[in-house]
Amino acid sequence: MTVGVKICGLTEERGLDACLEYGADWIGLNFFAKSPRYVTPVRAAELARRTSGAGSVCVGLFVEPTDTEITEVLDSVPLDVLQLYTSLERALSLAQTFGKEVWLSCPVSSRADLPVQCGVQRLVIESRAPKDASRPGGNGLTLPWDVTAGWTAPAPWILAGGLTPENVGQAVRMSDAPAVDVASGVESAPGIKDPTAVKLFIERARSARIA
Hints:
Elements lengths: L3 E4 L5 H9 L4 E5 L10 H9 L7 E7 L3 H8 L6 E5 L2 H11 L2 E8 L13 E6 L29 E4 L7 H8 L3 E4 L4 E3 L2 E2 L1 H12 L5
Parallel strand pairs: 1-2, 1-8, 2-3, 3-4, 4-5, 5-6, 6-7, 7-8
Antiparallel strand pairs: 9-10
Protein name: N-(5'-phosphoribosyl)anthranilate isomerase
Family: Belongs to the TrpF family.
Keywords: Amino-acid biosynthesis, Aromatic amino acid biosynthesis, Isomerase, Tryptophan biosynthesis
């Protein structure tokens, strides 16, 4: 089974073009203002236009968004997926309101935290943020990868948090993850993707089950 790859937090064309050239499955645009990878709807629309016909799916990341915030983004950005940091109940409500595929971010600390039910299309499994963190995800923290080994997931899922070209192969093999999500692990600076790192990350994720 081919491992899916999402590159998140795109802010500039060079990094985005590398994601498209090397075949990332999903392109992530971050609409959380406290993130160093935040993009305005106007900037996101410019980036999203470059993905037209390229075969990659556009994912918009939101943290506890209001309906108005999502509407303002969708008015100009052709998102395919809403990735949400919120409750399952709120995620289901937003899915019904906007008619979009929804992914729910699920921070975990141990195997007991792994979800056993799910009404959305995909789960993003990552390490729980520190109590003093300014954002619920994207903190570069690595989850103990064996936490998910053998887990019977209630929906398709993605492993996120602290992944790099150097560790993604081991992470896939230990976690049994069907897909992976990276932001800071392929950057030369916050929000600035390194094309060489993007290439290596995608190649090593895809070959992890062969090695």
